[in-house]
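FAQ
Q: What does a multi-component entry look like?
A: The components come first, one per line:
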Amino acid sequence: MAQRVLEVNNLVTCFKTNEGTVHAVNGISFYVEEGETLGIVGESGCGKSVSMLSVLNLLPQPPANVSADSIRFQDTELTKASKGEMRNIRGSKIAMIFQDPLTSLNPVLTMGFQIMEPLRLHLGMSEEEARNRAGELLHLVGIPEPHDRLSDYPHQFSGGMRQRAMIAMALTCNPPLVIADEPTTALDVTIQAQIVDLVKRLRDKFGMSLIWITHDLGVVAGLADRVNVMYAGFVVETAPINDVYMVPRHPYTAALLRSLPRIDGSQEEQLESIDGMPPELLELPPGCPFAPRCAFTKDICRQQNPHLKEINPEHWIACWVDITTGKVR
Amino acid sequence: MNNDILIQVKNLTKHFPITRGAIIQRQVGAVQAVDKVTFTIRKGETLGLVGESGCGKTTTGRTILQLYRPTAGEVFFRGIELAKLKGKQLRRARRNMQMVFQDPYASLNPRMNIGNIIAEPLEVHKIGDRQERRERVQELLRLVGLSPHFLTRYPHEFSGGQRQRVGIARALALQPEFIVLDEPISALDVSIQAQVVNLLAQLQQTFGLTYLFIAHDLSMVRHISDRTAVMYLGKIIELATRNELYGHPLHPYTQALLSAVPIPDPIRERKRQRIILEGDVPSPANPPRGCRFRPRCPSIQDLCKQKDPEWREVAADHWVACALYN
Ligand SMILES: Nc1ncnc2c1ncn2[C@@H]1O[C@H](COP(=O)(O)OP(=O)(O)O)[C@@H](O)[C@H]1O
Ligand SMILES: Nc1ncnc2c1ncn2[C@@H]1O[C@H](COP(=O)(O)OP(=O)(O)O)[C@@H](O)[C@H]1O
Ligand SMILES: [Mg+2]
Ligand SMILES: [Mg+2]
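Then the predicted structure of the entire assembly, as tokens:
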């Protein structure tokens, strides 16, 4: 079996707010293997970003409250890591790419400076070495005239170019794990195709593990080896990519896939819509969080929240019902 | 669907001036947001309008509705040129044409309750008395799948999908024939998008509505439209029936655009060949000479540099502006 780069057990994150406690992540467990791409999909507010920020210890506590049985990255137990160790891991071992690169770039510093800084800090390069390497990195991600662009400021880059630069920065220290949080959501579809193409090539070249977070089930289909489907702060289904798309077993995943139109017209009939809305994270229902919208709901679904169960090799779902028969398992 | 033309757009152009100077403003250039677009919308059809952000979709929709004064060109509604209408006639035409906006959070006045928001167009056009308007609003709420009791609630109490339903109810208040839907589902979550799209389709059936459906989600436009138009940098570069456009795209940009859209199916997705376009869209303030797609086009010809490609019907109901087909 492949080594697990990251393994998270029973992660719980909530926020204390004036309205009450927001239960953003409710005891999720997942792992990523070496060289593997894990897709995390789910609609806005289902806890995708918060779970990753929790793993990286990037949420201010309070208002957040993060707990986990364990968060293991390579040989380090992150729940016990010191601030310094965490900073070092975030700087050189786990890289993050965010939806909006502008929020993670400093507007008053040149792109060159921002790419060179970690090279000097974490890899101990000289000014000149770092400058050359920065140019190479921009070249690697397909920015034309890369050495000239080093003196540009972030606003002088287009959205697609900024995201490329962020990818270049994420790769500076050759990290074993890259977490990309909706990196193409703000981009147009032809630019998204450029970025996905780039990430695939770099991933295959450097062999890093990748966590790709998105609400777009299309993007993940061509990118991931395995997928976690999240709903209301829970992982409700996790399986190898083909199983999730071809034989989804959680009613939410199945309904979501049937609600999507397809560019090749392979799903031409009426779109199936899911009634209602995701639950308020302030007061989660006692049973399954999807029960109020589910077509298969039984009594037990409203009373008890199902745990993830392995129903086929590597295919786990959190659901009381077998959707192929419509009966409680 | 029939072939009666409801809207005819001829060489429609909208340029926004770029000015300099604080006191004496002088024009130093123009954003060519929409440039000489020509097409028709048939009664009862949905014309999809797709293209990447900034290509001029919203401006096209707003200029058709005369919310922007065209820089040049004409818009005909049932054969009557809108720019020539005044007073009562213009008001009547306006009633017939409504718009649903992209952002359900910004497009509803937060200080007005839902009842007043939906009744506003009725009041503006002095339709019915208080009681009649109230009943009409309740009927509209029911039509869009909301409880008539929501009347007294405020926008912040609603989710994005519910707000978009309110926006649709408001657009329907005056019983229009034509609605410009400007990215009506882009801000909504996936599971809610299908709800709103199905509602729009059902309302179209019931009232024989004609839609201009603007979106950047090409899969959804394929699902909802009868014909589809593709825009790039202020130009409509291809227009055809849905199956023709998605099945046999002719313009190199349309081909690249369609190939870039991912399919939620890992097996198909692994087999797909993508046309990856290089670079970014140029600025509409300074578009390339000749064909605007030229700098990124994989099939560039000598001709493309010299002149704007003609807008031609190359097969029945299939229009394209590209030197490859001139
Ligand atoms: N600082 C915060 N305070 C209160 N609630 C928060 C905070 N950050 C996130 N949340 C809530 O946690 C939930 C999960 O958010 P997030 O992980 O960002 O969702 P997404 O899946 O869209 O990335 C959401 O309901 C969000 O409103
Ligand atoms: N009111 C305006 N003033 C100046 N420029 C505008 C205005 N509205 C739109 N533009 C510009 O016109 C171009 C087309 O915009 P828009 O029609 O909104 O595109 P789309 O809806 O396809 O994203 C863009 O470059 C945009 O910045
Ligand atoms: Mg997020
Ligand atoms: Mg727009």
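Q: Is there any commentary attached?
A: Sometimes. For this entry: Residues 189-206 of chain A form the longest helix (18 residues).
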